[in-house]
Amino acid sequence: MGRTRRLQHNFLMAYICLSAIYAITSCIRENDSTEVEIRFHSALPEVRSGYPDENLITDISLLIFDETGAAEECIFLDNGLKHYTTKLVTDKTYRFCACANFGYPVYADHIDELQEITYRAAYPDEYRDGIPMSAEEEIFVSDGTALDISLKRLMAKISLRMDRSLLDEDVEMNVRSARIGNCPRYVTPFRDSRNGNADDSFPLGFSLDDVQTADLNFGIGNGLSKEVSLYMFENMQGRSDMHIGKDSEKVFDTDDHRKDLCSYIELEIEYMSDTRKSGEEGLIYRFYLGEDRNSFDVRRNTHYHITVTPENDGLSENSWRVDQSGLEDMPDPSFRAFPSDYIRGDIGDKIHIWCEFTPEDAPFDPGISYMEDDKAEGIYDYILDEDGHGAVLTLTGPGRGLIYMEAGEPVNDAALFIIEVNQP
Do 205 and 181 form a contact (C-beta atoms < 8 A)? Predict the structure, then answer.
C-alpha cells in the first residue's frame, strides 16, 4: 500500500483584527494612553453537512499582558459580540493572547499561567460552536499602530482520497468508514500538545461512515477519488528513534507504548476479487500520521493531504497495517441444474426447475425469453422463483419447449432444459 503526502501550511487562516485608533496630538508623552477599538472578523462560507465550519467564531477570551507578564485585562466576548474598546499605554510592549470557541471564559493573572490552560472535548466531533482556536502575539503599541493578530485552529485537518489506478482489474474496493485512531481528547493552546498515555485518546476517534465516505468511492478520473476530511487536536509525538525506509516499517511492536499514543488513520473497506471477499468487518487499512515517513507529529492549524494507493490485489501485506482477518476465500465456481435437463410430463403437472451455483451473486439469466415463447405456443405457463434462479412450470398443452439458463462470471456455465408434454 503506497501513499503520498502533501503538506500545506496555514490552512484557511482566521483572523482577529485589532485596529488601534489614536488621537494625533502635537506633543505625545511616553505614558500617554490611547483608546483602542478591537474588532473581530470572521468569514462564514458554506460548508458540507457533518463538517465543522472552519471559520465560525462564537466566543472569544482576550487576555492582554504587560511587559512584566501581569494581566492588564481579561475579556470574554460571546453572543456574537465581536468588538471591544479599551485603553492602553503608548510606547509599551504588550502580549495579546486569545482563545476562541471554548464555550467558557479563560482568565489568567499572569502570562505564565497560560502554559497550564487545557481545552478538553467531550467527544471527538464537538465542533458545533466552532473549532477551538488560540493566538499569542507580542506587539509594541505606539501612536497610530494597527494591530493584526492571526487566530490559529488547534486542530489539524486531514484530507484523504483513494487512487485505484494500480489495482488489478478483478479487484473492487469501496470504503465503508474512515476514522482517526488515538485521537486526542484535549489540547494545550499555548504550548505543544500531545497524548501522554492511552487514556488521553478517545476510544473511538473522529469518524466518517457510510454516506459520509461516499466521495472516496466516487471517481474523478485516472483512478482518483474525491476527498473527505477528518479533524483532530494536535498530537506532537516527535520523530522515530530509527530510520524508517518504507511505509510498511512505520509500525510499533506490541509492547511499545507509543502504539497507544501516536495517531493513525483506519479505513474499513468492502473488498471483492476473484479469490477473496470481505465479510461483515471488511478489509482494514491502517497507517500512522506524521509530517513525513519518520515523523509522528500532527500539528495544529495544518492541512495534510494523503492519497491511499493500493496496488495489484490490494493485499500487499497481512499485518496491523493491512488487516485481512475480515476476508474470506471465494468458493470455487460451481453449477448444477435441477431436477434434470430433460423433463417429461402430462397436462396439468407442475414442475419446478432451477439452477444452483456459486458464487450466488454471479450474474444469472433464467431464460425468460425462452419461457415466453413456449407460453405463447401454449405448452406451459410459468412463475419465476423469488431469487430468479428458476421457475415453476404448469404444463398446459402438448409440445416441446426449450429453456436456456446461464450464469455469468466467474461461473460461466449454463443448462438447457427440454420440456416435453404428452398428448392427452
Answer: yes
CA pair distance 252, 242, nearest whole angstrom: 11
The helix or strand, by DSSP H or E, that contains position 134, with its residue range, turns out to be strand 133-141
Q: Find cell 510606547 and name the residue.
A: 91
Evaluate if residue 420 carries a pLDDT over 60. Answer: yes
pLDDT one-digit tens code per residue, 23-73? 222 233 345 677 665 555 443 344 444 578 888 888 999 999 999 999 999
Which letter does DSSP use for residue 137 in this model?
E
pLDDT-wise least confident of 85-94, 139-148, 289-298: 139-148
Contacts of 370 (CB under 8 A, 6+ apart): 401, 402, 403, 404
Could you say which DSSP state residue 332 is in? Answer: P
Domains parsed from the chain with CATH numbers: 11-152 (2.60.40), 155-329 (2.60.40), 334-421 (2.60.40.1080)
CA atoms within 13 A on the CB side of 54: 23
Give the integer Cα–Cα distance in Å for 185 and 194.
10
pTM given for the model = 0.77
Place of cell 404444463: 395
* pLDDT of 398 over the 50 cut: yes
Nearest-angstrom CA–CA distance, 285 and 323:
6
